[in-house]
Amino acid sequence: MEPLKLVAVSAGLREPSSTRLLADRLAEATRARLAGEREAEVRVVELRGLAVDIANNLVTGFPGAALREAVEAVTAADGLIAVSPIFTASYSGLFKSFFDVIENTALTGKPVLIAATGGTARHSLALEHALRPMFAYLRAVVAPTAVYAATEDWGSGGDGSTGGLAGRIERAAGELADLVLGRYGAGPAGDPFEDVVPFEQQLAALRP
């Protein structure tokens, strides 16, 4: 059985980047959650090095070789982790531009974990009013838990195990792993509405 493909997209602009660090932590946590059942290969796509190719693609409609390879990796992934820094209360322009060059049906049904980094926790709702609606429009299947990491979440030592961040990473990774394995929210087999009494029968039972 071939390994599952996990791809993490990081839109961090600096080196080192907290956005890349969060992408790495989420990818490793998801790989670890899958390890008991399926082997998974992880690839990180850093958009920083593709910025010129993305701009050229938006203008010309033709991707360069490096951008084409990145897009193919994302669209072929069994699970996608998408991480953006938050600028002006939303995802970065580079992050949005990358997904703009992908066909708008290419992510249909794909399990996606969304995450973001920022200087203050006040911008955490950008995950819900910006990233989640974008992937909903692309018809991806977005994990319920979104992960936001503010500067203080990393702790003074710079590790990702302080505060509540580690717990959020583990919860989100578990949800993505379940989505990739096709078992998230699985209930008993059969039609859950099979035994529902039709409304007309319920009304008839109320008549004297």
Topology:
Blueprint: E1 4-10, H1 18-34, E2 40-46, H2 51-60, H3 65-76, E3 79-87, E4 90-91, H4 93-100, E5 111-118, H5 126-137, E6 141-142, E7 147-150, H6 165-180, H7 199-206
Parallel strand pairs: 1-2, 1-3, 3-5, 5-6, 5-7
Antiparallel strand pairs: 3-4
Helix pairs in contact: 1-6, 2-4
Uncertain segments of ≥5 residues (pLDDT<50)? 156-163, 186-194
Question: Briefly, what CATH class?
Answer: Alpha Beta
The second-level CATH architecture is 3-Layer(aba) Sandwich
CATH topology: Rossmann fold
Shape: globular
Derived structural class? alpha/beta
> Quick check: average pLDDT?
88
What is the CA-CA span between the terminal residues? 63 Å
Question: What fraction of residues sit in β-strands?
Answer: 15-25%
Kindly describe this structure:
- With 208 residues, this protein is α/β, with parallel strands linked by helices.
- It has a single domain (4-206), classed as 3-Layer(aba) Sandwich (Rossmann fold), CATH 3.40.50.
- 40% of the residues lie in helices and 19% in strands.
- Strands 1, 2, 3, 4, 5, 6 and 7 form a 7-stranded mixed β-sheet that branches.
- The radius of gyration is 20 Å and the shape is globular.
- The chain starts with a strand and ends with a helix.
- Mean pLDDT is 88; it is low at 156-163 and 186-194.
- This is FMN reductase.
- Keywords: Flavoprotein, FMN, Oxidoreductase.
- Its EC number is 1.5.1.-.
- Pfam families: FMN_red (PF03358).
- It is an enzyme of class 1 (oxidoreductase).
